[in-house]
Amino acid sequence: MVNLRLRTRLPAMSRKIRIILALVFFTLITLLFLDFTGTAHAWFGWMAKTQFLPAVLGLNVAVVVILLLLTLLLGRVYCSVICPMGVLQDIVAWLGKRGKRNPYSYSPAKSWLRYGVLVAFVVLLLAGFTSIAALLAPYSSYGRIANNLLQPLWMWGNNLLAYFAERVDSYAFYSADVWLRSLPTFLIAVFTLLAVGYLAWRHGRTYCNTICPVGTVLGFVAKFSWLKPVIDTSKCVNCGLCGRNCKAACINTKEHRIDYSRCVACMDCLENCHVNAIHYTHPKRKDTSTGDRKVDQGLRSFLALTSATAVAAVAKAQDKKVDGGLAAIEDKQIPNRLTPLLPPGAWSAQHMAQHCTGCQLCVSVCPNGVLRPSGNLMTLMQPEMSFERGYCRPECTKCGEVCPTGAIQPVERSEKSAIHIGHAVWIKKNCVVLTDNVNCGNCARHCPTGAIQMIPIDPKDEKSLRIPAVNVERCIGCGACENLCPARPFSAIYVEGHEAHRVN
């Protein structure tokens, strides 16, 4: 009797444990994108590095091996517990099926679509179109949703608390600027949320099992997992409840088969089975009714080719491993830079393009408002630097600390000031010294490396006004001069980026 009760309760317990772990992972990863103070990253920053695709691009072999072994042992628990986009689909699907009885039904796997998308994804990565491939990446897609849609709401709530706290002489909160960093990235985030949300609302895990390249790769591995949901045909009464409640649409109740490549180990089928005919266990070798054992030879060859291509991609990645008040307050405009500025630790435009998935984690954590998503098609959604709202402070290394793919390598505070990411360029026609006939020197006064010196316009006149002269060899491209220049709307001095960074 005790054993019977235990076996009855285990399915429900397994599902509850999975849901609790999924909500914990989802909440903490979301908090990484919402928290603009950096507190969450000190404790939970490692969770971003546990995502599959960032680990592959960052050549984090340990994480990749652990996730593959986890899949071989338990099935696609990564998709139902660790991946935030997967958990988001579960939340939307749960909301969509409320009040509906048996909302789903079995559908054959669309293998041609799944593997076609995977091949296209790998080809885009190999061809260097990482920003376009990132549109399909689950973690990065969720990051864009969190950064562009959820973080503004979070910051508005914080600003509201700061407003009321100030009224009672409390400074427990401080206001933060809320602004649109990139319209294209914002629109992509909105479209992604609507598309994935609609599919999850109507059809459950459709995105996960037909479009997501990570889901396809782990689905292939999950076919060989040790533990799986197994249908006991001797107990099954053919009620069909498991199949009609499976959000992955992977249970063929007529043939008592489960497509393990699409099963995300959510444990819903175990709880919905009223006769305890489904168990999460290791299937017997002779029992061919518990899953689809037929492996198409053409598909096997296709997957072998895909795996070889993915290995080549990894090998390729390894080889390329207003101060002063001299002008009216007016919003600054972005100068026309010939070469985009990349943060210290990115090292080169080539390195950034090959590793960055545009997840926006570095953008969300930047305390100085320097990073924002690129609008260029070739580097779409990847971070660029601009100094209208702040400059890259020598003591700040947050972007490299949080990057999960290694696109921005961590750098020590002591070595950051030795990394040259660009150089300052003086624009004579914009300088207030010449336009307003006043002394300024703001750029030289705030240059942390002393790369800007003020020289007289007329060397023979001791009272001559002074203009800035830039020592390109000493300039590191931090942007302090551009940000603090009083000239509006364009600064009289701006920073031009370097294709490859250099270190003194």
Number of strands: 10
Percentage beta strand: 5-15%
Compute the number of structural domains. 2
Rough outline: elongated
Overall mean pLDDT stands at: 86
Structural class based on helices, strands and sheet pairing:
mainly alpha
Describe the protein in words.
α6 packs across α9. This protein folds into 2 domains: 2-281, no CATH class; 325-503, Alpha-Beta Plaits (2-Layer Sandwich). It has helices spanning 2-34, 39-44, 52-57, 61-74, 77-82, 84-97, 111-126, 130-133, 138-167, 183-203, 206-210, 213-222, 241-244, 268-272, 297-319, 349-355, 361-365, 398-402, 413-416, 432-435, 442-446, 480-484, and strands at residues 228-231, 251-252, 257-258, 278-281, 371-373, 383-385, 419-426, 452-456, 466-470, 493-503. It is mostly helical and 504 residues long. A hairpin with a 4-residue loop joins β2 and β3 (257-258). 46% of the residues lie in helices and 9% in strands. The chain is elongated, with a radius of gyration of 27 Å. The strands form 5 sheets. A two-stranded antiparallel sheet has the order 1-4. It has a two-stranded antiparallel ribbon with strand order 2-3. It has a two-stranded antiparallel sheet with strand order 5-6. It starts with a helix and ends with a strand. The chain is built from 22 helices and 10 strands.
Outline of the structure:
The protein is mainly α. It contains 22 helices and 10 strands.
